[in-house]
Amino acid sequence: MTNFYTEAYAEPTKEMREAGTYAPVGNSLIGDDPSTKALLERAADFLGKEAALFMSSGTMCNEVAVRAHTRPGQEVICEKSCHIINFECGGPAAISGAMIHSIEGDRGMFTADQLSEAIRSGNPYLPQTGLVTVEQTANMAGGAIWPLEQLRKVANTAKQANIPTHMDGARLINAVVASGHPASEMTKGYDSVYMDFCKALNCPVGAVLAGSKEFIQEAWRIRQMIGGGIRRTGMLAAMANYALDHHVDRINEDHQLAQYIGERVGNIKGVASVEPVETNIVIIDFDPAGPAAPEIVAKLKENNVLVGAFGKYRIRVVTFMGRTLKDGEILCSELDKVLNG
Length: 341
Ligand SMILES: *Cc1c(COP(=O)(O)O)cnc(C)c1O
Hints:
Strand order of the largest sheet: 2-8-7-6-5-3-4
Low-confidence stretches: none
CATH topology of the largest domain: Aspartate Aminotransferase, domain 2
Largest sheet: 7 strands, mixed
Structural class: alpha/beta
CATH architecture of the largest domain: 3-Layer(aba) Sandwich
CATH class of the largest domain: Alpha Beta
Mean pLDDT: 96
Number of helices: 14
Radius of gyration: 20 Å
Shape: globular
Number of strands: 13
Order of helices and strands: EHHEHEHHEHEHEHHEEHHHEEHEEEH
Bound molecules: pyridoxal-5'-phosphate
């Protein structure tokens, strides 16, 4: 199967598995696990924060952050296409009693001016704005990278209004590799950030939430409350450490392959447009005169090519470890066949 569906299909390497299997472990719940401790110190430093906490998923990191930052009845400002709104089962409402206030941005990103307009103030009848979130990179917008300047302005605008900020960094590492800006620069001014180890970094399990010591203490409590405290994360943390040592530079290859696919599919008849490719995601829009996305995806699958339908005439292609130029060529030629016989 030529698989461009999601990074979740990446195979952890033999070396990564071994790093996990033979890692020293302890009781990580109380901070007494050498492998987890090493990862968290490193991740906090990488993300430019005081402290970090290991969790089993990115969704849990986002939801714990929402809960730690907000009180019931408050609003969370997010861009309309973000993961927190679309793929977390209504978590902010269920777990935090928070409402969502969505902004329709451009390619998954909103401006400081749009944020200013969305922030509630003054009138006591209004819900309070409790949190502002950004997603780096913006998944549904095709892995678009928030520019540093825009991130700063958004963080400053929130800060001026005394509202905390959270970054969903599921693919922050892709933004770092593609732009050359350190993660700690991108997260500057954000009160919390999560980074994922199961996307580009190829681990089987693991994400880290980072912030101030005080924030992480509260996040620890909430993680425990929802049953997310894992006792021996050392094996998982060691794999994440291994990924930071060995899998960061190779992310460039994913981006190059996505570029290649973006350029080639752009020339296929029946493809209406391709979102600008900035990292490892290619969003392809089809001419509505032709077949719809679910049909295209099904036909590709019959021919052993896996991609995701992301709208009636839109598919998403994700590149990740193990995908080769050959796989990219197969995808493009099979897509051409589906569209043009
Ligand atoms: C994958 C993803 C998440 C959630 O990560 P899980 O580990 O799958 O829960 C959050 N945000 C974005 C943008 C993602 O792509």
